[in-house]
Amino acid sequence: MKDAPRLYVEASLSGGAQFDATPEQAHYLSNVMRLTAGSEITLFNGHDGEWRGEIAETGKKRATLRSTDLLRPQAAEPDLWLVFALVKRSAVDLIVEKATELGVSKLLPVITERTNASRTGEERLRAIAVEAAEQCERLSVPEILPAQSFNKLLTSWEPTRILYSMDETGAGRPIAEVLAGAAPGPAALLIGPEGGFAKSELDALDRLAFATRVGLGPRVLRAETAVIAALACFQAIRGDWRQSSS
Amino acid sequence: MKDAPRLYVEASLSGGAQFDATPEQAHYLSNVMRLTAGSEITLFNGHDGEWRGEIAETGKKRATLRSTDLLRPQAAEPDLWLVFALVKRSAVDLIVEKATELGVSKLLPVITERTNASRTGEERLRAIAVEAAEQCERLSVPEILPAQSFNKLLTSWEPTRILYSMDETGAGRPIAEVLAGAAPGPAALLIGPEGGFAKSELDALDRLAFATRVGLGPRVLRAETAVIAALACFQAIRGDWRQSSS
Question: How many Å apart are CA A47 and CA A70, to the nearest integer?
Fold first, then answer.
């Protein structure tokens, strides 16, 4: 059923498992969707696969859910990280939503020299990622780290993970060319702040063997556009868009 | 000067040309940016290239602008159309903004069988495209057609322009594979409504030699995500992101 609400839950899922919905989910099911006991739902929790389920019981501000049949076993999702400098709130919200749809496994907000913001509102971002995961039929919700210093992140970086840095200065090689020639393995995309990286940050990146500058064409892209564009190119050329999905 | 406001104008641009700003531009320059006569600006009009200019005079709710020196000659921009089914207003706004940043030359909103909306608010969309063009340093503003019937559009389509149709059914070949093997020439991307195309519309597309279905991976993308993703892949693989920009 395409129209059954698809919900991310914390509970373990198995045949006949029963558990409480969150108050927000209960409100959504009862008051927004106007569903009652017996209505079909779809459930996932990031590790037990996707399950058909139903509303077992609804009460005032609460609902009990039940998983019944496995629809899809849990499958590996792309090992793709996104490192992004904090930008204005509406852009961060869009980045989290679109990165979830585009299959990012971990989001790492960073604070660079030219970053103004320092707070991420982690709970809000988590809610956005959950909603996007429910909607796009992912089997997982990406992990979102607290904001950290960009310099510190580079210092602790595991060098087997290639870091593709989106370069606004025009010094990067075209993204399709870089990705087509890239070795397989874990990867991360990096998008800087609206004002660009500081020279010292670019120099630091250039000294790292795991970091590669890539270019996104002749126009100046807003940070959130660069994120979506780069993720799409990655999935199309190196990621899980290379197989037909049916 | 990176910080000089960049304005799209209707007037012809040449050394010493002088003309009135629109009331909105006058308000922006005087009241938002707090600039006065003599302040530097950057100007483009879609056909005379990009010009350095200045504010010649400001008055109450008006401003006179002057172009002084050519910064960049007009250059051909990609011949890339975007056909998109009308979706909800916030998504349409995002589509217009991002398509402008990503180098689309013409936007063609269409009404399909499962499209609920029928009005585009052309003036609002034009304003969004102008602002995005100013910001992303394009030399032109994309043309935005009034909404039209999808069936009619297909009937009058010039068959030399390949129409890449984003396919949510999983029947399309992976986008990178399709684009890597595509012949050069004029192209258009097509994104359907949230509910997908009707069967009769998909059948009609399949009968057209100029239309090719392409897939955007295993997750379900919102319409606006599909637009940005497909445009990025096109520019990266077939378009003007293939050369380093410097």
Answer: 12
The verdict on A92 and A164 lying in the same domain is yes
In B, minimum Cα distance to A241 occurs at B217
B162 domain residue, yes or no: yes
Residues 81-100 of B with CB under 8 A from A: 98
Based on the fold, state whether residues A146 and A30 are members of the same structural domain. no
Task: Provide CB contacts within 8 A for A167, sequence distance 6+.
Answer: A213, A214, A215, A216
Q: Which domain holds residue B153?
A: 80-237
Sheet holding B18-20, edge to edge: B6-8, B40-44, B50-59, B62-72, B18-20
- pLDDT above 70: percentage of residues in chain A: 98
Phi, psi of B53 (to 5 degrees): -155, -170
Q: Do B55 and B87 sit in the same domain of this protein?
A: no
- pLDDT tens-digit series, residues A37-46: 999 999 999 9
Last residue within a domain, chosen from B22, B56, B72: B72
Question: What interface predicted TM-score (ipTM) does this complex get?
Answer: 0.91
Residues in a beta bridge with A7: A43
Q: Is the CB of B241 less than 8 angstroms away from the CB of A176?
A: yes
Q: How far apart are CA B232 and CA B207, in angstroms?
A: 27
